[in-house]
User: Fold this.
Amino acid sequence: MSLEKTASIVIIGGGVSGCSIAWNLAREGVRDIVVLEKDTLGNGSTGRCGAGVRMQWGAKRNCQLALYSIEFFEKANEILEYERDIEFDQSGYLIVAANDKEAEQFKKNVALQNSLGIDSCYLTPQEAQEIVPHINTSEFVAATFCHRDGHLNPFHTTEAYALAAERLGVKFYKHTEVTGIEVKEGKIQAVQTNRGRIVTPIVVNAAGGWSKDIGLMAGIDIPIFVQRHQILVTEPLEPILRPMVMGFAYNIYIQQVPHGSIIMGRSDATEPFDLRVTPGWQFMEEMTRTCGTLLPYLRSAKILRQWAGHYCNTEDAQPIYGPAPGLEGFYLALGFSGHGFMLAPATGRLITEMILDKPLTIDVSDLDIGRFERRELFFEYSVV
Amino acid sequence: MLYEKGLVPPELIDTTRPSPERRAKGPYAVIECFQEIPCNPCSISCPFDAILPMEDINELPRLVLDLCTGCGICAGVCPGLAIFIVDESKGDGTARISIPYEFVPLPQKGDQVLALDREGQPVSEAQVLRVQKGKKNGTPLVTLEVPRDLAHTIRFFKTREEQEEMIPSAQAALKSEDSQTNQELTILCRCEGITVGDIRRLIQEGYTTVDEIKRISRAGMGPCQARTCGPLIASEIARLTGTAVEDVEPSAHRPPVKPLPISFFMEDATNEP
Assistant:
């Protein structure tokens, strides 16, 4: 398939965000949309993520974005007319507070979430144990739970968006790497790739771990830093862990997927800022210690595989949405700080509204790139 | 035939059949081992020295039928499940076949089962006469009563439960006469139960790397971690897309090399919480 010579919009990045943006734009009637992916769809952070989706956040914007997204996921198979299944399983998130300070923050989070229509609640360790039997209650002081949180299959979700977008005429080019962005008089002119050049007035940077590099090609230095995050997966087991169990200070997220495997991850603040995705031994030791202490009955579960992907972090752990100042036609949908998969429906909707100059479904004007210079930051602490 | 399809050709089968006199006399072993491999448990386990000692461990076993009592020890130790005990001495039109059977649960004495030929096709009903648990690490032997004229045809069986639980694709494969359909229904990824047909459809949909197929279908995500199916998927991609197999990117292999319990990585931890 030879590359298009012109496009009305070029989306860089075939992860779930890029695919969602493409579908939302096409559904609004935009034609000649091109998605460029240097590898295969979902090969970056999307296909390597922990696959959880939650509304239990500490920042109002994240709560709103997640609420919109979960309501979309609940109906996504039908809306996207997907023949396979995105496997959305709403068995909830149980989030544990490791200390009193965190428990105080959780009380505030629940109040915020409830005020936005998110049905979460604050629990004692004993109440938490009723939701997750066998959890080691001596390891935490309180918990919160939301039954509408859950997880879904990232590969199928991305495919669902991509197939629906393709039916609306969007062109996807896999194995097509962007090598340059042409800018003239403060306006986007064209995108150069290893397979040719596409003339376009609009570029959306949804390149996840590579979005900083894409920004530099257009002369925009985006304040994000990329870190490796690792995950391991066990052999399939009978259903024994229904909700996702998560702890921020405790540094764990762990869930059992419908297929039976248990997937768990944690973060490591000492990771260097680069694009490596090779698995590390240290993670295996720390992850198993954390899991084996909080959920001791999983100690005999066998590990099949570990892998890694990128977190594309911002300083406040909230995404950057919107146009890049001083460069007409360059839009940013990046810096999701590990949560791009779960926010993808909102991302697609909002970027579409911004490009088409429509009123925003959620006012994310304060999530622009300029907030870092203005120092108007609201820090999200509810992250692993 | 033997190397291409894994089926023993009839002329080789004929060599295992004793004289009519020996068949009428009592039980005997039938050794359907036709490939020279380094393996000798049958010859060293026979208490009657009926299977001759091997000078070279790659030799095929040689059975002296006059010394064989049909005791079944060799059938229980053969790792290839290639030895059967046949007893045609009843003279009432029936025969007994003892078949090594390594699935669980074992059938019970008195069960009706579906007897299968070497290709796995059903050929008759049969009754379980005896179930011998394997001694030491031996394979259990299940003795069936079958029509005598099928004594050299029947080599396996399915229990009632297995017939009911048989996955639809396997049922269709059993019924299908069409080799193309049979091939499509062949399981390619055994851990996740993905067929050759599933993989081919995904390749036709445009998924032309092993990793893409893995992510959509789970092929290669199971306990073997694509060690078995990965190269098979790569060869299907190569065939259907007209590329050389060495140009198909293999799936990423990640640690651990074999499944290991969580406790293995925890210092001073045991499996018992």
Q: What stands out?
A: The interface with chain A takes residues 209, 211-212, 215-216, 218, 221-223, 225, 252, 254-256, 259-267, 269-273 of chain B (CB under 8 Å). Chain B has twelve helices and ten strands. The mean pLDDT of chain B is 89. The longest strand of chain B covers residues 122-132.
